[in-house]
Amino acid sequence: MAAKDGGLSLHIPAPKARPGETPDFSHIVIPPAGETPRPAIDTAPAEMRDLAYGLIRVLDDEGTAVGPWALKLEPDVLRRALRAMMLTRVFDNRMFAAHRQGKVTFFIKSTGEEAIGVAQSMVLRKGDMNFPSYRTTSFLMEREYPLLDMFNQNLATADDPLQGRQLPILYSAKAYGFYTLSGNVGSRFHHAVGWAMASAYRGDTKIALACIGDGTTAENEFHTALTFATVYRAPVILTVTNNQWAISSFQGIAGGESTTFAARGVGYGLPALRVDGNDFLAVYAATQWAAERARANLGATVIEMVSYRAEGHSTSDDPTRYRPIDEATHWPLGDPIERLKGHLTKLGEWSDERHEQLYAELTDTITEVYRQADAVGALGVSKPPVGEMFENLFATPDWRLLEQRKELGV
Amino acid sequence: MVQALNSALDVMMERDPDVLAFGQDVGYFGGVFRVTDGLQAKHGAKRCFDTPISEAGIVSTAIGMGVYGLRPVAEIQFADYILPAYDQLVSEAARIRYRSGGDFWVPITVRTPYGGGIFGGQTHSQSPEAVFTHVTGLKTVIPSNPYDAKGLLIASIEDDDPVIFMEPKRLYNGPFDGNHGKALSSWGQHPAGEVPDGYYNVPLGKAAVAREGADVTVICYGTMVHVSLAAAEESGVDAEVIDLRSLVPLDIDTIEASVKKTGRCVIVHEASRFSGFGAELSALVQERCFFHLKSPIERVTGWDTPYPHAFEWDYFPGPARVTKALLRTMENN
Question: Does B319 touch chain A if contact means CB atoms closer than 8 Å?
């Protein structure tokens, strides 16, 4: 509707391209790799504000690591990272197929975002805690969380480590530094700040890391977390994965049209980095920098990981209804697995043959472990004892639970 | 009661370095109701501190700390303002042990003053206990006197699950039986105003019989315990007054035994009636004591309106209304 002469008009953000149109990422400004300076960790946040509006990149188009953020990582470390990313993708594809086969009610892939969880896992130490999002599976993969437990949770078999209480993908793995997930987005983001404050209170050395998506930065907890993190100088890394889409809403609906998500941190007086989230080396270096700050008692850092959700939101979603079908192939920052593969190959530490061989090996592993979980009995073929429904609510169940359990006869 | 609560915090901070207290105005100033008075000076700013004005942030912080292994005591300045933290309490604190298969748990206490009788209008008078008792995974505790306040708060802090600890603010500085025209009395003259200095606890889930009686059971908590005791005297009805002390876990055995003995039941709370905690109590009594009942179960509660400023004493369920209910239940033999 045209505005009346001199009248106001309401702005409703809209993405550049819808289904049937040509994907357009011209608004994403990509500086050359290696250009962004790497300040000392004790630099005053006010002197680092540019970092919130730039883009830290390490890998150039030829796959060479360049610039001050290029850390010297051993080829074994890089191969380990590549393996965890590939394992995540193979696992995700197997689970997606399982959904199509009716073996699982629901699933969420991490496709395109695998570099982030892997780098976070490598930077965090034993005892640190990640407060993840549901697209952080690669963190568990890097930590070698048992694949069979993972399948058993997703398939809600009798051996489900969460006793049949949680939707697929909503893992909890304290021993692996992975906090309990939940389906309501954002509500654990601030827990990382409280947890980090507790570590500082006790005089420990542990740090926390929190993950949230671009869409969820609009939730209350994102803002309370940044407020408390800055007020109490909590040793926490506050990560926003900007994967461009929150189900069908593009990142402009969350406020990404007028500024960056990293820039949210600037308003709170926190150092804020904006990072190429598909560049494993950049993600690693930025997370490492933030971890060093936290461990040095310098407080919290906000990091925006710029990435792209290459698949639908979940098995319940059909992205072709709201974005061009080929948008992923136009994403200018590429695919994180391909980029790390290219880097290792450039170093002479990897090859197409080794890549194919590893892919085949991981596929075999996933096929075999999936078969084991399926043999336990997926989705109702087997399930944990029904009595588990009444366990773990309180440390000690009260009479209501005891009576109701008796009523159900379990 | 303020001093008793303060003493509970002091004793627990002394005993356990993992106990800390925080909330709006809680630190240097000592809280708007003075419950944390002197704790920062004694235990240091790291253990008793001010927070930003963010109820969701305060409770989120407590959850994160609790998961780490601390036993934080968070204050929400008025129960009326707890709703921004409701999602954190309902979707997170109450379920973390359950959904993580016992991997994580949340040993936190959220203290909050509730209730009317202080001319606080509709934003400083509410009694939102039922919105917590309905949530599976939360405990809800409400003391009615200084001795219990200290013992129950200590038990709540020691509890490994999240506890909503609601403090009847009209009782902070003395007992109040609803006769608002009477001169104020202090806890000094009240037997339960005697509070030992050191450590003791009052276990959660154990009701107290505030008055033994033969003819009708009155189930109540918080300020309404004193109102109900006054009504028992004024009505001349030999009422047995049960002070629940904790709503979750609920001492169903004490309720059941009493109603089976008296055959009559009046439920009194200050919160509005519809879907109030009295509805649950009424259902439980009916389910368990139906064949012992001689007359219908009565509820005396706040009205189903917000708590109005100028009509405070028309809203507040005082002894006159409880008396009427007691006499009505006695009409049936």
Answer: no
